[in-house]
Specification:
The protein is of the alpha/beta class and 161 residues long. The protein contains 4 helices and 6 strands. The protein has a 6-stranded mixed beta sheet. The N and C termini lie far apart (37 Å).
Length: 161
């Protein structure tokens, strides 16, 4: 597959995702219209809807929460503030909403409060992000596009964080 990665190339998430894509034998491109799939391992901007659907299979976005619970920015900070027992590594299919697309892959991650949020992200969330991305890429390459709708009544979103 040919994969487009959105986000800042200087982040650990971007670099780790790019390395995984190469290790699995896929190709990374900077040209969206030439891609089979686009991914966003650390998206800090809202992509236009018309861009999201350009790749053959669509665009997957990573979110460090058990979507639909924990929608919005600063999901890990929010989970720490609420003293949650768990969070998750979730890849979801981008749509016109914010963090509302169907779930492709998800893995629950127990929050380690002995770590600061940034350390927890680096030590626990990034490895889970890669495990779930690897499963998603393998399935998509085999023609299996998992799309589990989010249950809206379980969604949360805190604009203050």
């Amino acid at each position: 597959m040919i994969v487009r990665i959105y986000g800042n190339e200087n982040t650990a998430a971007y670099g780790a995702a790019k390395a995984l894509i190469g290790r699995l034998g896929h190709t990374v491109t900077d040209v969206t219209c030439m891609s089979d799939l686009a991914i966003a391992p650390l998206l800090t901007e809202i992509l236009p809807t018309e861009v999201l659907g350009v790749p053959v299979y669509g665009t997957l976005i990573f979110h460090p929460s058990p979507l639909p619970y924990g929608r919005g920015a600063s999901a890990i900070k929010y989970a720490y503030k609420r003293q949650e027992a768990i969070t998750a590594a979730t890849w979801f299919w981008a749509n016109s909403g914010i963090d509302t697309g169907d779930i492709c892959e998800q893995e629950i991650v127990k929050i380690d409060y002995s770590l600061r949020p940034r350390e927890f992200y680096e030590q626990d969330i990034l490895p889970a992000m890669l495990r779930t991305l690897e499963r998603a890429l393998k399935d998509i390459a085999e023609g299996h596009l998992r799309k589990v709708p989010q249950v809206e009544k379980y969604s949360t979103y805190d604009k203050k964080l």
